[in-house]
Write the structure tokens for this entry.
Amino acid sequence: MSSSGYVDVPRCSVIFDGTNYAEFAGFMRIHMRGLLLWGVLSGEVPCPPCPVAPVAPIPPVPPVLAADASQADRDEAKALDDAVVDAYDQQMSSYSDALFVYRDDLFAYTHWCNDDARVAAVLTAGVLPQFVSEFMGLGTVAAMWSYLCQRYQPSGDALYLSVVHQEHALQQGDSSVDEFYSQCSAIWRQLDSLRTVICGTCR
């Protein structure tokens, strides 16, 4: 955490721009595994149920006897009161056990929610804003990741040919040699990833 109170978000080295899903997904997987949070992003670690706090038992009310109550009435009231107190003690024991379980479950649930929020921050920091707006309203980061996969995952020859067209249309123009090479490299990496996807669908 910085001195200003903001938490630094470790952003993925590849930024999703709408055309580089395969490369982005590969780098994001490595990135999130390094942060020990891949399971939350992929949905392999689902949200645990939100625990419900146990209700504490109501303490028994001591019996009230008339001043002129007989000894028999007093003995009967005492026996009944002892039975009620014993039952209350058992209820308190069960409540204490349930409270212990609840605290553990609440910790697990809160921890997962914090991890989900942390992963969502990393994911949105690695996606251009115009694409973040498409999925930021979804309930969990796993749902966001699933949306990106369904929406932008390479689907076959059409996308491959589109990237090939980008490669052919790419010109250096006013770019430096290094800048032009970087642009070419990005397209080449995308073509390599698409070849892998397309070949995999033919097996």
Q: What stands out?
A: The chain is about 65% helix and 0% strand.
